[in-house]
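User: Show me sequence and structure for the first protein, then do the same for the second.

Assistant: Starting with the first protein.
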Amino acid sequence: MKLTRFNRAKSTVLALGAAVGLFFLTGCDVGITNLTPGALPENPSQIYTISTRVKPKAVNVVPESLSVRIIIDGLSFDMRKSPLGRDIYEFDYQLPAGRNEIAYYFLVNYKYENQGILVDREEFTDVIRSKIVGRYVLSLETNRGPVGARVSVLGRGFTASDTVTFDGSATRTVFDSPNSLSFFVPAVETGRNYRVEIAGSAGTSSVGTFRVDATLLEVSPSELNLTSGQTQTLTFTLPNPAPTGGLLLDVTTDAPDSVIMPEVVIPAGTTTATIEVKGGQPGSGSLFLKGFGSGEITVPFSVR
C-alpha cells in the first residue's frame, strides 16, 4: 500500500515521539538514599537534622547542576552539603509544638547531557516518616555478668512503668530516675547471650545483648532440719567479692509454707551473706538457686 504525504508525516511524528519517550524514560540517573533514622531522640530545642545521600549514577549527569531540596508540610527547603561526605546533604528542621513525627520527601533537580544537549530532570522519593521518641537508650553499664548482678541502663525518658526484659521475659527492674534504670540479672541459663530490651507504655526499645556468666557459690549448711518456729542460719559464700550494686540471690522453694526467710543480697565488695531461716508449717522440700555452680544449687530441708 502506498503511503500518502499525510501518512508519511504522521509516521514521522510517531517515530519522533517514541524516540523522545525513550529519551525521557531511561530510568533514574541519580541515587537518593535517606540517611535519617526512623526514630529520632527528643531534644530540648526540638531541632532535628535530616540527611540524605544524593549520588549521580550516570556519567551524563552534570554534578554541579544538582539541586537537593526537602519537602516538609508542603514547603520546600534547600539542603546544604554536609561536612560528613561529598554526596551527603542535610537540613535542620524545627518541629512545631505538639508534633512527634516528621513526614518529608527529597526532591532533586539536575541537568543531563545527551549528544551535547542539556535537559532538565527531576527525581523524588516516596514520603518518609521519622518519629520523635522521648525514651532512648544511651548505654548499658556492662555487657556481661553473673546471675543476680545489678546492672544500670543509662538513657533518657525512662518511667516507673518501664521493665527490662531478657529475650522478652521481664526481669526485676528498679526505676532510679528518668535517666537511669537498673535490673538484676535473672536466674537464666549461663554461658550465653540474651537480647535486652526496655518495654513500657512508650513501646519497646533495644538495649543490646548481655552475656550471663557462671559463678561459683557455696551454701552452708547443705541441709536444714527445723521445727516449726525454730530458726537456723544459712550462709552464702562467693569466691570473689560481689560486684558494684551487690549480688541478689533469687532463692526459690517448692514448699513456701514451710520456710520463712528474708531476701538474700551479698553486699558489694564482700563475699558472704548470712540469713536466718525460720521453720513454718511442717513439711519438706528444697531451696533452689539457679545460675550457680553446675547450673543449680539445691538445699533440702524438713520442718517437724
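Switching to the second protein now.
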Amino acid sequence: MINAGDAKQTMMPIGRKFKGLFVTLLLFSVIYVSSMVATSKQAYANNCHISDCALAKEYVKESHNDLIEHTIKEFDSDLQEFQNWLLKELFRGEVVPATAAMVTQMSAVAMQYTQIIGTFIDAQTQLDTQRILRKLQYEAHRDYVPSETFCYFGTNVKSMAATENKGRYNALALSRISLDRQMGTIGTAGGSDLSGDYKSRWDQFVRTYCDPLDNNFQDLTIGESSPLGVPHERRTGLMLACEHNGVAGSISYGAEDKNRYNRDINYTRLIEKPRTLDVDFTDDSLDSTISSAQSSSAGSINQLGDEEDVIALSKNLYGHKVLSRRLTRATLKRDDAKRLYLTLRSIAAKRNVAQASYNAIVALKSAGTTHESTGSVAKADSSGGTNVTLDNHQTRRYMAAIIDQLLPANPGSSAANIFGLIGYSPSYFSQLEILAKRIYQDPGFYANLYDTPANVKRKKVAMKAIELMVDRAIYESQIRREMGISVLLASKLRAAHRTTNRDLALATGQDH
C-alpha cells in the first residue's frame, strides 16, 4: 500500500520539472519583450532627452523584475495548487483506492493460482506415488514368482544331504568290515584261522559267483545236449569246482543267480556302470523292498542288495591274504614278535588307506534315502511284470522326469528303464550327475533362460551351488589320492630306508 507522503515525494520532481519549463518560457517572453522595449527605447532615445531615457530604462528594468517575480509567485501558487490536487484528489482519492483494490484483487487471484498450482503438485505427487507403487507391485509379482525350471534345483536337492550322510556311513561300515577282517576280530570268517577266511570265500564263490563256462568250458561229447552227460574225466571248465555238494553228477552247480556271475571280480559291471548301488548298511537285511501302499493292483519289488558283492570284490582287491593269526601270549612277550606285530598293523593301515578310495566310490553310489514310500502312481519294474508304487512327492520322481525328457520317446523308454538307470533310491552320485550334467543336456533348459532377471539370477546361484558340490567331491577325491600316493611312496622307500638304517648302524657300531 502507498501512503500520501510517498506520493508527495514522488510528485515533487514532476512539479519541479513543470516549474522549470514554465520559468524558461517566461524568461524567453521577458527577453523578447525587453528586446522590443529596448528597440523602442533606442528609437525613443534618439528623439528624447538623456535623463528621460535613463528614467525610462530604470522603469523598464523595475517592471521587468516585477514581472518576473510576479510570474514566479503565480507559477509557484498554481503549481502548489496543482500538486495539492494531484496528491489529495487524484492520487489519494482515486489512485490509492484503486491501487489498493487492484492489489487486493491480485492477492486474491494469486492465492487462487497458488491453490491451483498446489493442487496440480498434489495430483502429480499422488500419481507418481501410485505409479511407483504399481511398479514395485509388478516387480514383486515378477521377481517373487520362481520359474518351473528353477524348481528343478529346489526339488531335486531335498534328499542330497541325507543321501550324502548315508553314503558316508556306508563308507565307514566298509572300512570297519575290512579292518575287522584283517585284524581277526571275533565273529569274522577268518577270525581264528586263515583257512577260515579262504573256506568262507570259496563257499561264497561256488554258490554265488562261479560261472561254469569259465576256464575254457567244452562239451567233448558230440550230440549230447546236457554237459552233465559228459564223463567226469572229459569235462572242462569249472563245473566240477562249482558243484554245490562236491559230488560228481550233481545238478546243482554254479551261481544260483546267473546275473551274479563273476560280480566279485568285475569292477566295471558292479561299481563303474551303475549310477546307484543297492548298498545300505544301516539295516540288517541284504535285500531291499519297494512296497506299494495305496494301490491294490500294484505289487512290490524285492531287489537283492549289492552289499555282499561289494564286500566280496573288496576282499579280492585289497588284502586277499589276511594278516597272520599265529600270535600267542607267550610269543608276544618277545621283542621281535612285538616288532613283527607292529609291522602287521602298519600293513593293515596301508591296506585301509588303499581301500579308502574304493569305499568312497561305493559310498557315492550307494542308495539314497527311501522315505515317502507311499503313493498311487504305478511304475513297472525291470522284469515288466510287477508294478512299483511311488509317492508323488518323492525326489526320485522329479529326477525321473528330467531323465524322461532326455530319453527318446519310444516304447522302450519306460519308467523301468529310467529307474534302472538312476536307481529307485538315487545315490548322491546319481543325483549330482543329473543336476550337474544331465539337466544341461535338455535344450529346453536354455530356452527357459529367457526369463525374468530375478529368476535368471536364482538359477545362476543354484548352478553355482551345484558347482561347489562337484568341486567339493573332486577335492575330497584329490585328498584321498594324495594320501594313497604318499603311502605308496613310503612303501617304495621302505627297502632303501631299511638298508640305509642298517648301514648307518653298522658304521657306528650300534645294534640295528
